[in-house]
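Hi Y.,

Following your request, here is the sequence exactly as I used it, all 87 residues.
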Amino acid sequence: MSSHPVPTREELASLEDDELERLAIEWRARASRGARQAYGVAHALEVEWRQRIRVSRAQELPPPVVEPRRWWKFWQTRPVSEASSSL
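Below is the corresponding structure, written out as tokens. Let me know if you'd prefer a different format.
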């Protein structure tokens, strides 16, 4: 990473997933021990890590199954046999 505290988008994109996870955990530990500059770095790394996890998990999901809606059932208030017998 560069000399400035918070990594850029390009720097984050260049990291592999495992390396990003390791760095996020490491920087969060530094921040929890009180290192002020570590908060921004930890946050940036964790945001990128969560976005990657979200995308990869979404790709694993099966496509949603949506049954076609029977639009004519909406207009039908009672069964056809009752409607024709009452006339």
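The chain has five helices and no strands.

Thanks again,
Q.
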